[in-house]
Structures
1.
Amino acid sequence: MAIVEVKNLSKTFDAAGGTTTALNHINLSIEEGDVFGIIGMSGAGKSTLVRCLNLLEVPTEGQVIVEGKDLTALTNKELREERGRIAMIFQSFNLLQQKNVISNVCVPMMIQGKKKSEAKKRAKELLELVCLQDKARSYPSQLSGGQCQRVAIARALASDPKILLCDEATSALDPQTTNQILDLLKEINQKLKITIIIITHQMSVVQKICNRVAIIDHGEIAEMGEVEEIFTHPKSQAGRVLVIDGTQEVGTSDRQKAVELLKEKKRIRIVFSKNSSYEPVIANMVLAVGKPVNILKADTQDVGGVARGQMILGLPDDADAQEKMIAYLKDHNLAVEEVQA
Amino acid sequence: MREEIVTMLLQGIGETLYMSVFATLFGYVIGLPWGVALCITGKNGIKRNSGIYFVLDVIANIMRSIPFLILMIMVIPLTIAIVGQSYGSTATIVPLVISAAPMIARMVESSLVEVDAGEIEAVQSMGAGTGWIILHVLLGEGRVSLIAGATISFATILGYSAMAGTLGGGGLGDIAIRYGYHRYDTQIMIITVVLLVVLVQIFQGLGTWVGKKSDKR
């Protein structure tokens, strides 16, 4: 059974000059043990969606069913208890600034009415898990962003949750720290068997740790499925923008302009997936066909010795060479598709 | 300076402090919950309730627009009912509290609405109820600003208590009026003013120091 099920969820806000629809009839189902990504551009409604999952935002319509319980039908008291099982971390960490690290980690346990000595003991263990045991007496203002997020993760785990919601948890961090936090989340998912739901606008985050992903666009789910599948063959417009524009900020990209200026008419996108072989495939293709290609965009990373990621190539105008090149790439187990100029 | 004048001034200081400290204290007994209520029922509060907010807001505005001296006269029946007489330091505490409470409520409200909404959201996501949020997040995280507000409130009340002296309230204001104004004794008037300035300075300094000490940001 799904651990989180969202049924026909809508959320509208009353604003000056009419109502705006933030979420429009969303249906989602997240399995236990998933690292589920919810990706979308800013304003797509993803933050509203994640806040509906623990009812920080009350849906206008629809149901949120967590571990078989319909949250929208609970009393206030029952809802507060249930929230102990759905932890959350935030883009801006949201630690209590006037409390030191260990007191911050104790907060969920104090809310649940645990004994102070027990809470302190558990908090120490959690700080060890996030490698911050030596910062127990520090205050958040004395820590770096990455350290703050680690404290926030330790705090989130303090109530022994089954689900961890991450609202743009790495967006305020540099790439290296982002990777460390993502590794930590992955570890938590695997070791503690906590289902993780990640809200992000970065495809790289989804690629790194999620197994399933939903793309949200204008308050609706544009598409949803296995990360590998969606990355290789994005079907929706929003999906294509997110995947092909990839790591760069969506919208205003100078690089996009540069690509448009190039003269090649025929462009293909190739995706390196887990089936890709270990060889310099582009270079070999050029040698085999005897014509050059233009690499318009390359975004690959080495995962266990195999290239993963994507490239966009501008092919020579010669139709025969184009055909040969595509055939060559397909022979080497690469997903190839044409992209529009 | 004659010994009796020194004694009188010392007694004046004592009365001024007595009035200011107790008026601030009782002012917070009323103003703190009032300010908390304004904050949580307000526009971005955790228990938004425009009806309750409107009532608390209007009462605060009305009470704050009545000039203190007029308020003092208006509440004489109440003062007599509580204290038994309408003059003297203890009696002055009553109008001081009535005048200070709405100001303190506003101070508290403005301190608490500054508390980071993200911090409140975080503890809500952990299942914290309204009481927990008020106690640990609003008051706990807003404490530096609350202390600064208390310092300002105290200095203002001290100033009001001097004003109350003109209506037989006792304290340094009383001395300044009786000796400085009615008897044309400029020297005593200046001394009382200097003493008031020194008192405000000491408490402002103390408040700033405590605020800084407790700030962990």
2.
Amino acid sequence: MITFDDVSITYSGATQPVLSHVNLTIPEGELVLVVGRTGSGKSTLLKCVNGLVPHFTGGTLSGRVTVAGRDTRTHPPRELADVVGIVPQDPMSGFVTDVVEDELAYGMESLGLAPDVMRRRVEETLDLLGLAHLRNRALMSLSGGERQRVAIGAVLTTHPSVLVLDEPTSALDPGAAEEVLAALQRLVHDLGVTVLMAEHRLERVVQYADRVIVVGGPGEAIRMGTPDEIMIDAPVAPPVVELGRLAGWDPLPLSVRDARRCAAPLRERLEPFVSDLSVATNMYGDEALSMSDAIVRHGHTVALRGISISAQAGEIVAVMGRNGAGKSTLLGTLVGLHGLNGGSASVGNAAPASLRGRELVTRVGLVPQDPTHLLVADSVRDECSATDLDCGLAAGSTRRTLDRLAPGIKDDTHPRDLSEGQRLALALAIVLAADPPIVLLDEPTRGLDYPAKQQLVAILKSLAQEGRCVLLATHDVELAADVATRVIVLADGEIVADGPAPDVVIGSPMFAPQVSKVLSPQPWLTVAQVARALEPAS
Amino acid sequence: MKPQHRLGAAALPRWTHPVAWWAWALGLVACVSRTTNPLLHALIVSVAGWVVARRRPEAPWANSFALFCRLGIVVIAIRVVVAMILGGGLGDHVLFTLPSIQLPDWVAGITLGGPVTAEALLSALYEGAVIAAILACIGAANSLASPARLLATVPAALYEVGVSIVVALSFAPQLVADVSRVQTARRLRGRPHRGVRALAGSAMPVFEGALERAVDLAAAMDSRGYGRTRPMKPRDQFIARVLVLISLIALSIGVYALVDGVDGSWVSWSFVAIGIICAMVGLRIAGRRSIRTRYRPDPWALPEWLVLLSGWIPAALFIAVAVNDPASLTGQTSPLQWPALPAIPAIAVLMAALPGIVTPLPPGGGPASTGVASELRRQEVLS
Amino acid sequence: MTLQTATTTQSRPAHIGRRTGLALAAASTFGLFAFLWPLIGAADSTAITHASETPWLFAVLLPLVIAVVLADLADGGLDAKGIALIGVLSAVAAALRPFGGGHAGFEPMWIVIILGGRVLGPGAGFGIGAIGMFASALLTGGVGPWLAFQMIAAGWVGLGAGLLPRASGKSELALLTVYGALACLAYGFLLNLWFWPTVTVAGTLPAAISFIPGAGFVTNLGHWLAFCIATSLGFDIPRAALTVALIIAAGRPILNALRRDSRRAAFDVPVTFRAPVPASSVHVQ
């Protein structure tokens, strides 16, 4: 279906090719996963498929890419629109119209399909992706998962035989991700669509993949193989695979189900160490923040209905729950973005809504969901020096913080050109400049690859060790399992669970990490814990 | 009878073709421009308002009628005030006298103030009423015709421009949402987040974000088949381009002749006519390059015809009356006289109320709920 | 495999070729007549003898002319990037217009039209001006006979910005500032012209600021300027002042952002296809 024949890509002005000598053949009807670090050329590979590289981006392509027999040299993206559908990373950025139904029809209008065909296909697609109840809704009013499904639907209506997706689930909560993946599964199985998908959240997708392509980065060869072949030594792997590697299981399990089948001996080996795990003592400092019976309304919707929490210095609290459960509102209330309609909130003995400027940022800092919103300057240098000025610090202080968090960022890079992880680090450095004892992070792992996530985990732990109170809103169960000392689960604006991380997540179908699912009823959460337990034994 | 031909309440709710509403409103504008009789103006505005009240969808743009009426009242007020200050010396019923100032010659020697006559005020009022009534008719069209649907009717040759406008329309509300997001970020950095300075500080990030999304959007549009064209015969392409040039040049010559008065008016009119025809044909041929089709277009059925006629027949009647009995359409100011309501024009205006009965109701909760304002509210809830 | 190297270069958005240039010139001539007829019209011409009808004639014909010229501009080369950029800049312009509410000429949109035209070229500048006006009219329900006049005048402002001579650094900003002030004043004065005859011909306003059909160029020019000063200067000067202030304060970063983005959009970047370079490649599958 797709062939890459000795393809090398060099962008204009670059000295080194992004991809070199790529040879790939992707058969029809397969779900192919593309993995690799940020900046390894994954996106470039995906954009080659419909000719956006080099027709749209400029640059030099040597070799040949063909899709369904069409050569991208002679077929620019618009001439491939009926064969390849591309869903961009941020679905909102690709929407042309503003209503679901019109958006689904837009591609077909461009291709000049007959009105009755369009009508039929729109209805079919609405049903296929479960969007029928949203047909008249404005795109801006949809949730992340709904937007993603509309974006998929919008390219599906032209009946492409290849679907290319760039990180379709990384911004979604587990439930919404399941919906999107189920829809993709259906396309592959029922309609024979070839799906090419880049994704960092391997734990969600690897078990669905027929093949995996590993993009190593400039100068490294691209490998393709079945998931179990590739996962044996892939640089990035989901926890279940790492557990399998640790335990030496063969064949390597890709899903929780496979792993549980061979987990009995491991559970036996681990049994003696379980008692070492329960060391939950209160070693934290004073109360850093609190909320009691807090109510926040947005118009007619109630975002928080009587929330009472408190957190101590040195704690890392993960706030979990589905999209729209009130996580972001909770964090926003703690920095005074939302006024309270009832109850009280306090950060560092002050009501957050009454704080302004310095008073606020020295007490509490929030890294928003999209860290780009915090960044305003033209270069990393300006961003750092502006922050030094804002906070009255010695020149270079913010820059030093940044180097500690993410070394090696060039001074004159434009903040918008940084990778997701670097951008998060920069935003965090800015927030930390005022030295707030409370740090809040909203969905920090969005778009991060595994190494960047590891780095984030280390940073969060060191923040807690410095005696800060860290509160993060996240859907990432693996991150929560890794760093959180306490987990709060919100649903519909109310707290439904609040307690030490193992107590809350173990046994929860939604929030349990993979390791816990494999090894339950034993309370293991992370591969690192298991590895530590096994170390003396081996 | 096909469902889309059914009239009024018997029809299923659907959008009446936006072009029909505009044609109707322009017919009313033509009526207004033929008369200075304030009673007729009041009647026309009431009829337009009645139709708006009956067929207005639930959308932010549907408030235009009220906005335009308010604007019309402002226009009348300004005209009256200007007439008082600048005077005009019409008539002899002096109501009161303002202190007067003689401006120097270099500003054309205007006298400010002086005696204010009832005739001058009344004629300012009547003339203001013409503009206010025109504004009200246009406001009615703005209230009744969905801009998005109006846009979907652009001819094929203007497709690219149409897409650009669609992009602009769906993007503008996102921008407003972006501004509030950036203001949030400013608060998080401990900078002022309200007031003019904060707004200025928010503008650049929003602008950069917008530009960045423009490139992403272009990539998405390209991948989705935007700009696919049917290969045109070189001859057709040549003809289309030549016709376009001829039309523009003919129109320019035509209006030059109109303005310069070189000859009898028929020469200029024929140039204008040639220009219009060439433009239409040229646009039509140029439109052949587009292969684009339209999803669920608004039908043009019996109600649309009736809407069109109920605007244009009154316009024709007004023009006929203006020729035969101009006095009945004139609001008399000197000598002062209470205006009378002439029968034929009044009946003609009442005809224009027909769309309030025959058109189908607009769908409720449909695309009407996608307006800018309601979106912003939703966005606030979500973020 | 015998593939040859093929290179194409993508052009700037709405590039104006000779044909489009001619069409724009003809349309602009028409537009000038549409505005200037009260001043230049001969006493015995149809336009002047039917002075109260003429504005309506132009209000009908001008949209057609604008449609034709925009279609021609699009035919000349508006790819997805051009459309998206013009659309987004029009959105910015449109969003900035209701923002100022048009009160006392507080219309920050002009900076977008002027700087957009400067960076993206005259064709795109015309597009941003004309389409931005149209989009903002749709957004605020401001469609009416005035719209075509606003569109073509705003298009000229963007077009002119694209035609300004080369300059960089401080001199570029100075150039744009002067242009911005003049363009905003000219826009206001021109826009008065289209309705001036209709509102003043009846004779209720003082003769000194009224249109006198057939009174000749000099007289009417004087009356028109007096009319502008008496009625709209209060809007025109704040509009020009705001634009100048914005260009001085934010011109540099906005120009940089536009240039950065037009690099990102790779408008002038060559696209090359080359035959594969023989090398030891790893073949998978």
